[in-house]
Amino acid sequence: MKFKIEPHIGAGDLKFGMSRDEIQQILGTPEHTSKQMIMDYGDFSISIPAKDGYFKNELQISFDDNNKANFIEFTGKDSEFTEVFLKDIEVFKTPAFELIQKISNSTSSEFDNEDDEIPYSYVFPSIDLAVWRQVIPKQDEQKEEISESDEGKYFWTIGIGIKGYYEQE
Fold it and tell me: How many domains does the chain have?
């Protein structure tokens, strides 16, 4: 299934602010679902959002305390069921270094260049969009062509959130 992601709006027919029931009317029953929970680690705790997964978890939708969609994430590594576009950019078929440039140019936004996760993850705070990969290429992707067999050539996930999503962290 093809999805066109639109920062601060949603992906295809899935819009931020929709309830779980509204999303299920579009996609059907999720293959995976989890409730919101708090992971307590003694000195600190982490809130884990409620989440529904579709297409073998290639699409995951997170929900706020009112069960309204507030984050949509796609997994593209080895995906079989979803194709994801940002404007006319096919996200998971565009090499990572090139994708960062295209996101910046097509949305007139910049990534947070002080983020400690670069080059594994890039966050574009003004549009609440992030991309992530678990590994980076063995060669310098800014100077060399990266082999298709290199797992770091492409990003593995892309996520978009409601306006201000990355300010909440």
Answer: 1
**Token reading at 166:** 């990355």
Q: How far is CA 8 from its chain centroid?
A: 12
10-residue mean pLDDT profile of the chain (169 residues): values are 97 97 96 87 83 96 95 94 96 95 96 94 97 88 77 94 86
- What integer pLDDT is reported at residue 13 of this predicted model? 97
Q: Are 156 and 132 in contact (CB under 8 A)?
A: yes
| 91 vs 130: CA distance, rounded Å | 12
Instruction: Name the nearest CA neighbour of 168 among 65, 41, 31.
Output: 65
Rg value, the chain, Cα: 16
Which residues pair with residue 32 across a beta bridge?
53
What is the CATH number for 32? Answer: 2.60.460
Q: Which domain holds residue 143?
A: 2-167
d(CA 112, CA 160): 15
In terms of phi and psi (left: phi > 0; alpha: psi -120 to 50; beta: otherwise), the region of 102 is alpha
Kindly give, in sequence order, each residue whose CB lies less than 8 Å from that of residue 93, ignoring residues fewer than 6 positions away. 154
Q: Nearest Cα to 130, choosing from 89, 160, 168?
A: 160
